[in-house]
Write a structure and sequence with these properties.
Distance between the termini: 40 Å
Shape: globular
CATH superfamily of the largest domain: NAD(P)-binding Rossmann-like Domain
Radius of gyration: 19 Å
Structural class: alpha/beta
Number of helices: 16
CATH class of the largest domain: Alpha Beta
CATH architecture of the largest domain: 3-Layer(aba) Sandwich
Low-confidence stretches: none
Largest sheet: 8 strands, mixed
Strand content: 5-15%
């Protein structure tokens, strides 16, 4: 199967999503190792069959966690990287020289690197010498980790250039409660996953300010227009943004109480400072680090993204949430269709 037989799975990153995906692989009978940066997390997984990030969830007995990156990657033919985008390069550089360049690499991170403006699959190809382009992909979609870990029904999409590997990964993760689709549009799938976090912060601000459901619906809809506009300009397929990695992920992240980015926006909308909110959050809100990079991408591509620009002002310049709302409401009136061009 495209050079992948008897898969051994390594998952790099023991946060809520990395641990959930590792559990899914382990439950399919695949040898699975999970790398945790913190020793206490590895101990809890190995001895308590639980994770501090997945309350009330029992993990499979066969799953083993370690803080030793070399041990995690030993003989691994499928490597799943589940660290946040701001730490992605540092971790993949640690993997260089240890990981097998012939392995399949799958990113779970939903972000854009500041400065380089690279997607996570591009960082994998840049930092791991000899890795094969057609064997590097991403998994994305409306994937709230705790729901999936609790076996609540969910769907996802895997994008990777090699169709045989895509089929292999699809069969590897699909289950009665987790439906997996494939999509050859890696650019679109990764961009959809990154940009929707910015829009979720905006919707959270609307919740915090208390402007109502009409305004939230408008933000989600116009956010989809921005997401699609930039994604298509950068090479994504329009239908990708109408699918799971686009509108599907956007809806889940903008509406769910489990969404870190929506929660962060809501707290900012209530008047709290960014530093205060981040200090109490146990997990990463990817939109905080990716918003600047996405605005830079939009500027470079000459694509207008007013919602993302206002979120950037809120996060990095301390703009008042009410002023953010007024700036969007008082923009020059134009055709709705123009927003998708």
């Amino acid at each position: 199967m495209s050079g992948v037989s008897d898969p051994v799975v390594a998952v790099i990153g023991a946060g809520s999503w990395g641990t959930t995906v590792a559990a899914l692989a382990c439950e399919k009978g695949l040898p699975t190792r999970l790398w945790a940066r913190r020793e206490e997390v590895a101990v809890q997984i190995n001895k308590g069959y639980s994770s501090p990030y997945l309350p009330g969830v029992f993990l499979p007995f066969g799953l083993r966690a370690t803080t030793d990156l070399s041990e995690t990657l030993e003989n691994a033919s499928i490597v799943i990287v589940a660290v946040p985008s701001h730490a992605f390069r540092a971790v993949t550089c640690e993997m260089a020289g240890i990981a097998d360049p012939d392995a399949v690499y799958l990113s779970l991170a939903k972000g854009i690197e500041q400065g380089s403006l690279l997607r996570m699959s591009e960082i994998l190809r840049e930092t791991l010498p000899g890795v094969q382009v057609e064997r590097v992909g991403a998994l994305s979609g409306p994937n709230l980790a705790l729901e999936i870990a609790r076996r609540q029904p969910a769907t996802t999409v895997i994008a990777i250039p090699d169709p045989e590997i895509a089929d292999l990964l699809q069969r590897m993760f699909i289950s009665p409660t987790f439906r997996v689709y494939t999509n050859p549009d890696l650019v679109g799938v990764e961009l959809g996953g990154a940009i929707k976090n910015v829009m979720a912060i905006a919707v959270g601000v609307a919740d915090g300010v208390g402007v109502g459901d009409n305004a939230k619906a408008a933000l989600v809809t116009r956010g989809l227009a921005e997401l699609t506009r930039l994604g298509v300009k950068l090479g994504g397929h329009p239908m990708t943004f109408a699918g799971l990695a686009g509108v599907g992920d956007l809806i889940a992240t903008c509406m769910s109480p489990y969404s870190r980015n929506r929660h962060l926006g809501e707290e900012l909308g209530k008047g709290r400072s960014l530093a205060e909110v981040l200090d109490e959050m146990k997990m990463v809100a990817e939109g905080v680090s990716s918003t600047r990079a996405i605005c830079d991408l939009a500027m470079r591509a000459e694509v207008e993204m007013p919602i993302a620009e206002q979120v950037a002002k809120l996060l990095y310049e301390g703009e008042n949430p009410i002023d953010m709302a007024m700036s969007l409401l008082t923009r020059e009136a134009k055709s709705e269709i123009d927003g998708y061009r």
